[in-house]
Write a structure and sequence with these properties.
mainly alpha; two-stranded antiparallel ribbon
């Protein structure tokens, strides 16, 4: 393990850490959670870290022998995540055909610390097929003949860097809890009142977008 290789992998991890799916999910949890938002968001980050480390360790330890099995599971989760997002957009589009009260931004009743962990795991697993820096880093570890102990330590470091933006969000929320919470409450109130007007064009766009998102795994 050379310093150049370690620096290259760290750079790949920094690039991979700018993952909008995980960052947006953590932000929405901090906004919408009525109680213990940091705990819920932190649990989701833990789930993301479990997926990044576990999949990376499996691929590294088997030197690619189990790659097809792992990728098959990841692909199934990817179809599930994109399919659910597509259905959500289609339902939102159907609702725009009529005027209705604006629903508050809330988390489902089942979203607890115990379920936030698997939520983070599934969300991250669904996005892994697009994580090119992740697979490049693993390939470099394998091709350079990195030892098991060092390789797992590097993967753990990669996982930490991957979660860094979300950890920064959590840190800001904990340090400036009152001010951040007040701003988040104002943001929630802004999008939680009034009515959603009827709009046929927007309804059609949302439905078409939902179909596109739901079938996206078939084309990428």
């Amino acid at each position: 393990m050379t310093l150049a290789l370690l620096a290259g992998i760290a750079g790949l991890a920094l690039l991979d850490s700018l993952n909008p799916a995980t960052i947006v999910a953590v932000t929405l949890i901090l906004i919408a959670a009525p109680r213990r938002p940091a705990l819920l968001a932190g649990a989701a980050v833990v789930g993301a870290a479990i997926t990044v480390f576990t999949v990376g360790a499996a691929l590294f330890l088997t030197a690619g022998a189990a790659a097809s099995a792992v990728e098959g599971i990841v692909l199934a989760l990817r179809y599930l995540a994109f399919g659910a997002a597509g259905v959500g957009l289609i339902v939102a589009g159907i609702h725009r055909f009529t005027e209705r009260p604006r629903q508050p931004i809330t988390l489902p009743a089942w979203f607890r610390p115990s379920t936030a962990v698997p939520f983070g795991m599934v969300l991250t697993a669904a996005d892994l097929p697009n994580a090119f820096p992740y697979f490049i880093a693993l390939e470099r570890l394998v091709s350079n003949g990195t030892g098991v102990g060092v390789g797992l330590a590097v993967i753990a470091g990669y996982t930490l860097i991957y979660c860094l933006p979300c950890l920064v969000l959590l840190g800001v929320g904990l340090i400036a809890r009152d001010r951040v919470r007040l701003r988040l409450v104002r943001l929630v109130d802004r999008f939680s009142g009034g009515t959603v007007g009827r709009s046929v064009p927007i309804a059609i766009i949302l439905i078409l977008l939902g179909i596109g998102v739901g079938t996206l795994p078939l084309w990428i």
